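Need Galactitol-1-phosphate 5-dehydrogenase's 3D structure for a figure. Predict it.
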Amino acid sequence: MKAAVLHSENEIIYQDIEISECQPNEVKVKVMAAGICGSDTHKMVSKWKYPLPAIMGHEFAGYVVEKGKDVTNVEIGDRVAAIPFIPCNECEYCLRGQFSLCENHGMIGSKSFGAFAEFVNIPAKNVLPIGEMSFEDAAMIEPSAVSLHGVLNIHPQLGDVVAVFGVGTIGILAIQWLRVAGVKEIIAIDISDKKLQDAMDLGCEKSINPLKEDLIKKIYEYTNGLGVDIAFECAGSKITQEQCLLITRKQGKVGYLGIAYSDVTLSEKAFENIFRRELTLKGFWNSYSAPFPGKEWMNTIEFVQQGKIKLKELVSHRYKLEDTQKAFNMMINREEEYNKVMIIPNEELE
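Structure prediction for Galactitol-1-phosphate 5-dehydrogenase:
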């Protein structure tokens, strides 16, 4: 098959590669859409810590084209979304149903070959039927589930005022889920006016561009001097990771979805706010709960099918498989403003 193969940091070669036959418990998926995750691009400018050569791509959907002899849950020709996380089902956390905390998990697209390829072999229990949902929507079930995992576990209340830092894919999905959860007001915070407009179009009441406005002043202006009930950090920036602590009201909550890519040093004021304001800080990792893969995944499928969560509107760019390197260069060098970037390994036949 053809694949976009990673040989070193941001050195991706479009080449032929062998793919094995399905194991008894596996299916082979013909990949029709695969999203580039923000974590993928960060790994290209820091350090790739998994075996090389590698094939990235953990957000994907396609057709089942082959199945192992023990597979009974899907048939050849089924349209499916992939669950990239493979829990060990043996560690203490798996036995508790806390699959996101698994201590010995597999991961399609890093620990094993992923979806920037024409085909992927994956355990049959790691695919979900999608019916008539588009493949691009289905490829975004994974990031939607990540956002929902955070929203569900921060426990927003009716009437809450929430600030969302970073309105890329994860942030804009968090905004939609917060709207479903019944919060009163959402304040989008980003340094891109375009992304802020997208956030307003999808349900935010207010927005702030900290490059143009005093963030702290505007937040307290919007909240009658109290601060927000919940601050959601989705940007993965050490600046916004600290700012969350400066704008949250007494006994408010701070949720961290963005990954830390460098040391975070807190000002005295930010650190004091944690205990003087009795803040609750929570981190959220991955998107899984019991029964696996969890309500984050199943609710995403149901709410997308009902039209309550918008996914296709978030796709800004599409690249053919052979142009995967161009896609990464565009994102890493910020040659254009982008949101979700899709790799299309196989074209639909008319």
